[in-house]
Specification:
Number of helices: 13
Strand content: under 5%
Shape: globular
Radius of gyration: 19 Å
Structural class: mainly alpha
Largest sheet: 2 strands, antiparallel
Order of helices and strands: HHHHEEHHHHHHHHH
C-alpha cells in the first residue's frame, strides 16, 4: 500500500522511470567521455543522489522493507565510490577554496539520512562502518551523527567537539530540537521535541526538497524524516502523539521482528 499522502501510485511509477532514464543517460555520457574531468566528481555524487531519491520514492510508493534494504545496500556502494570532500564540504577562506571540516547543507542531510536508514534497516556492522569511515576520513564531528553511530558502536569515541557557527549554521537551526531530544534524560520531554521537529522544522526552506511536490515537472519523491525515526527507535520513545505525522516513517520504527528459523532439515529449507 502506498505510504505517501501527497502523490498517487502512477505519479511515483512515472517518477522512478524518469529518474532511471536520467541515470542511464549520465552513465552513457561518462562512458563516452562526454563528462569533463572537472565534473566527474559531481557526476559520481549525482549518481548516488539520483539513486537515493529513487529509493525514497520506492518507500513512498509502498515497496516492502526487504526491497528497500536491498536497494539501500546498493546505494551504499555508490556513496562509497562517489562521496568526495571536494563536492560535499563547505568551502571558505580568502579565495573560497579552503575546505572546512563541515558538510554543506544538502550533503549533511543525505549523510544523516543514510546513517538513520542504516540503523533502521539494521544493516550489518561491516556495512554501517562504511559510513563511519567516510565521516572520519572527512574529519566531520557532529553530535547528531555521533548519537546514531554510538547506537551501533557503543565504544565509539568522538574525536573532537562539533564546530558550527551558532549564529549562521542552518544545520544547527533546522535540527536543533532533534539534537536536544537526544540529550534528554526525560523521555516525555524528548517526545515533545521530536514532535515539534516533525511539525515545525523538518520541512524547511533550506532543504534540497522544499516544495518539490509543487513543481510542474516530476521532482517529488517523498518527504520522510528518517532521522526522527532513528532517534525514536534508539531512545525507545512513545511516538503515539505523532505516529500519523505525514513525515514520520512509522513502519521503519515498528517493524515486525522475523521469527527465528527452525533448526535441522526444516531450517535448511528456510522455515
Amino acid at each position: 500500500m502506498i505510504r505517501d499522502k501527497i502523490k498517487d501510485k502512477s505519479y511515483f511509477e512515472g517518477y522512478i522511470s524518469q529518474i532511471k532514464s536520467i541515470v542511464d543517460k549520465s552513465h552513457q555520457n561518462y562512458a563516452n567521455g562526454i563528462i569533463k574531468d572537472d565534473r566527474i566528481l559531481w557526476y559520481k555524487l549525482n549518481v548516488f543522489g539520483y539513486n537515493f531519491d529513487i529509493l525514497i520514492a520506492k518507500y513512498s510508493l509502498g515497496f516492502d522493507i526487504a526491497k528497500i534494504k536491498n536497494d539501500y545496500l546498493q546505494i551504499l556502494e555508490m556513496l562509497s565510490e562517489g562521496w568526495s570532500e571536494q563536492v560535499t564540504k563547505v568551502k571558505g577562506g580568502s579565495e573560497n577554496t579552503e575546505l572546512w571540516d563541515q558538510y554543506m547543507v544538502s550533503p549533511y542531510a543525505k549523510m544523516l539520512q543514510m546513517l538513520s536508514l542504516g540503523y533502521l534497516l539494521n544493516i550489518s556492522d561491516q556495512n554501517f562502518q562504511i559510513l563511519v569511515d567516510i565521516i572520519d576520513r572527512d574529519n566531520i564531528s557532529d553530535n547528531l551523527y555521533e548519537f546514531i553511530i554510538k547506537a551501533r558502536f557503543a565504544d565509539r569515541v568522538q574525536k573532537r567537539p562539533e564546530e558550527y557557527d551558532t549564529d549562521q549554521s542552518v544545520i544547527l537551526k533546522v535540527y536543533d530540537k532533534l539534537r536536544k531530544a537526544t540529550e534528554q534524560a526525560d523521555k516525555v520531554e524528548a517526545n515533545k521535541l521530536v514532535k515539534q521537529f516533525l511539525e515545525k522544522d523538518f520541512y524547511h526552506e533550506h532543504s534540497n526538497f522544499y516544495e518539490f511536490h509543487k513543481k510542474k515537472y516530476n521532482a517529488y519523491y517523498g518527504y520522510w524524516s528518517f532521522e526522527a525515526a532513528a532517534v525514536v527507535k534508539i531512545m525507545g520513545l512513545d511516538d503515539s502523539s505523532f505516529i500519523d505525522n505525514q513525515y514520520y516513517p512509522k513502519d521503519l520504527v515498528h517493524q515486525k521482528s522475523e521469527p527465528p528459523k527452525k533448526k535441522g532439515f526444516l531450517g535448511k529449507l528456510g522455515f
